Amino acid sequence: xxxxxxxxxxxxxxxxxxxxxxxxxxALAVLTVFSLSAITERISLNxxxxxxxxxxxxxxxxxxxxxEPQLLTQANKFGLATAEMLYFDSMLFANDELVLGxxxxxxGSYPLRGKIxxxxxxxxxxxxVDTGPKAGAIWLSEGLFYAxxxxxxxxxxxxxxxxxxxxxxxxxxxxxxxxLSGNKRVLLNYADIATTQAVQPGSRVFHRLLFAGNEQQLSxxxxxxxxxxxxxxxxxxxxxxxxxxxxxIVRAERFLLLAGLFGIxxxxxxxxxxxxxxxxxxxxxxxMMKTLGGSRKVIRNIFLLHLSLVTVFSIVAGLMVGFVLQxxxxxxxxxxMGTELPxxxxxxxxxxxxxxxxCALMFSLKPLLDLFxxxxxxxxxxxxxDTLAISRIHIALSMMTIFVxxxxxxxxxxxxxxxxxxxxxIIAILFAISRLLFAAGRRLGLRPGSxxxxxxxxxxxxxxxxxxxxxxxxxxxxxxxxxxxLKNDIIADWQMQVPADAPNMFIINIAKEEVxxxxxxxxxxxxxxxxxxxxxxxRVDAVNGEKFARRVSKQxxxxxxxxxxxxxxxxxxxxxxxxxxEGNEITEGQxxxxxxxxxxxxxxxxxxxxxxxxxxxxxDTITLLVNEQAINAKVTSFRKVDWGTLKPNFVMIxxxxxxxxxxxxxxxxxxxxxxxxxxxxxxxxxxxxISMIDIKSQIxxxxxxxxxxxxxxxxxxxxxLVSGALVLIxxxxxxxxxxxxxxxxxxxxxxxxxxIKLATLYEFMLLGGIAGLVAALVxxxxxxVIQQQLFDVAGRLHPYIWLLGPLSxxxxxxxxxxxxxxxxxxxxxxxxxxxxx
Amino acid sequence: xxxxxxxxxxxxxxxxxxVNTLEGSLTILSDINFSVKSGESVxxxxxxxxGKSTLLSLLAGLDVASEGEIHLDGEALSxxxxxxxxxxxxxxxxxxxxxxxxxxxxxxxxxxxxxAELAGDHDAKAQAVELLEKVGLSHRLAHYPSQLSGGEQQRxxxxxxxxxxxKILFADEPSANLDRKNGQLIENLLFDLNKxxxxxxxxxxxxxxxxxxxxRIIHIEGGQLEKISEGGAANVG
Lengths: 837, 237
What we know:
- The structure holds 2 protein chains of 2 kinds.
- Chain A is α+β, with helices and mostly antiparallel strands.
- Chain A has 3 domains: about 1-55 and about 245-410, no CATH class; about 55-240, no CATH class; about 505-695, no CATH class.
- Helices cover about 55% and strands about 15% of the residues of chain A.
- Chain A contains 22 helices and 24 strands.
- In chain A, strands 12, 13, 14, 15, 16, 17, 18, 19, 20, 21, 22, 23 and 24 form a 13-stranded mixed sheet that branches.
- In chain A, a hairpin with a 2-residue loop joins strand 20 and strand 21 (about 630-640).
- Chain B has one domain (about 40-65, about 80-230): P-loop containing nucleotide triphosphate hydrolases (Rossmann fold).
- Chain B has helices spanning about 5, 50-60, 80-90, 110-120, 125-135, 150-160, 180-195, 210, and strands at about 10-20, 25-35, 40-45, 65-70, 75, 95, 170, 200-205, 215-220, 225-230.
- The two termini of chain B are about 25 Å apart.
- Classes of the chains: A alpha+beta, B alpha/beta.
- Chains A and B meet through helix 1, helix 8 and helix 9 of A and helix 2, helix 3, helix 4 and helix 6 of B.
């Protein structure tokens, strides 16, 4: 029988809007978690896929020696897809032109991830294909067409072989982002290597095996492979590829998670406040039911059923809305990114439903237990049970739950702790402020009849309740300010990395005598360009005489290869410079003193990221192998380099007295527009040995990621705003009955409507203003910590929010508060009295 | 138990209620002794703070006595826990309160049905409709408390008090929140229904006129039973 009664009461409470805030709060938490985790998961999956595209596979094994065939057969046994690649440099010959090209010979299954972009002729549009050239055919990059003066259909000699030029090679997924080989690239079928006779014992070649499969297969294979890896074999994963966007993506994900946390935190506060209020409003009916003979069991069943129904409905609603939102969001992003986003798995569903359940249970548990304990005597002694309303256990339980939820969702204890600690700080400050206000107001001695006095009096009178309200308001404002600032900072930071006038083309392989005429060419054609850097490549062979072994992989779980001696196998591009390049910062030591000492000793400034990898310290001597020539350089400084910028960056910069010791080419970067196509062709024809690397796509990708993240932030910010509004509404609603009573008294005593209205408005403005100010101060301090800890950005203070906080707080709180109370104020005293009855 | 005590539907002996305050123990009621016969109407009168509402709460098993005993329809309240007292109330007691105490989210009809539904009675609707007809609210069945006047709300409360045909009806200042006309109406209803149903009525009031409508008046002063006098209806009952 109680079930029928429970459903009846539930449907009425729903209709009366008593459960709306609880319902909305749970649903909001669920939809926030669902949409964010689904979208971030889909973006992550997509990025992982994209990153795989960067190495045309999921993992690769590199060596300058041929691999044992069993490595491939074993990989196939583990269910992995494989491809083979061989890199070598060889001369190409056609029309009496002899050009050195960098050849990539590939097996039929290449690329395992991503696509090859080609053109049928220099002027036709580009399109994607899944496989490389067939045996006997050769694909050349655009620069080679100019250098060799050939067109599609011509024949080209490569080593000892004669090949048909069938396509223009535009892009391979794993084309080097920046290398000296530039755009003299050749794609050849693996079967044709022998025909070229270019690869002889002792030739300088690079072998690669590519693997693709699921993580389990890859990990099983690696476990098998690891013990037999040779020192010249290098296992790499997608995370080893230094993408300038990688860091930004990690930051974006963290930001979204953080923002999601705020959404949850606010929804949780709204839930805790409204659950408590709902239960308080049930005190009388419960006391009445007990008086009328209702047993504790029946009452408990009724309200537990209510809680279950609200929970189930709100979780389902949250999941549904969340699903729609993430579908719309993901579709939009997919169109924007020009790619399909992979579907998210079960995790978002389970995680969000679980969080909804925890919210519902933990925030309503204590108020519900209090409700069951309401004595029937309350029907006669009206205030009995009210003492239960202020429950430290409820506060403690709610806070603990919020903490755990944040931790589960973010998976980061540090972020959670910082956010939580700053929240506790806000609570402490606001409690102190509300106490001070109370004391100060009493001393001031208020004049009756003025709206401000009335507002202050009301603030004082409800000092305790106000402290709670202040805290909720401050929390909501703090979280919103947090998001606004972080959004501004991160986006500004990124936009700085990819400014609108960033160079979009690298020009390499410039001979010394070409530097001046090319500079003139740029000037004549109004093309903006960077400085011309001398460039040569060299390998770090030894430090203080001790030689290095192969490099260690950064792939997770695969880096603990303790037997390998740490080192770097990559041949970085090196330069010499007289002054520290823009965007670099000395972290240790001093920039070159050459010119002051005038000595012959060569100095080197090293990227600080390599400091640990190579185990370097100031004063060490590095031996660089440049064209088999050993160069010793003394480490005199370490530099911080921002790899996020798409500008020429160098791992090692040598002192200018390096000039003349090794042969070099020059390197520059320019900003080219579509209208400059003719000029580019002229440039390539006039200087056929130079190479141009188009980084437009990288810039576009960076900009698209910035746009995506801005969009995602906008979405999250709106969720946080709605949660914030929910908190405010639940708080104001909680005080509505008391306000009604006061209004009746004031009206009955003859107070004018205008006075009451203004007093209410001022009260909310004061509350919002104080909350906003404290929120702004605490947010700014917490942000300093978060930016440094979490986002690796230099933290800075934001004085503008010290004004924005109180102003937006006053506006936000007063508008929502006033709007909610306005309805009550419009009713006449008689109507209010009846409602109170 | 004697035949006499069996006739006494309420038997109060040596009833004392003390509460702990910051200043120490405070005695609200001290050594109260009286009995109420089945079908009798009794008014408990006294000034504000005299302890009459406390007495009512103890009689109805809403609170527990510090000393002494109350027998309700033969059952000693001190031997019952809260659940058993709730069952006893469900079976034998009806209430009318000064502030009506209706559940705001239930209609007039549903409020009347509430005690029966809590007791697991499936066929309470017909009886509830009949009771609402008796109190003149047959046209207000689907109205919520906020849509009813004070007098109407109290009539709903009276109808609710009589559902399940309780043996005893406790009324706490039933007309105090109402204007004179509505107050009169409510009082008449209460006594009429009481007579029709043969219910025992225990009424707490400070209104002498209302008290006189009862058969006996118990005067409480400073937590003590001052005297028991006969009311105006003594000869009627």
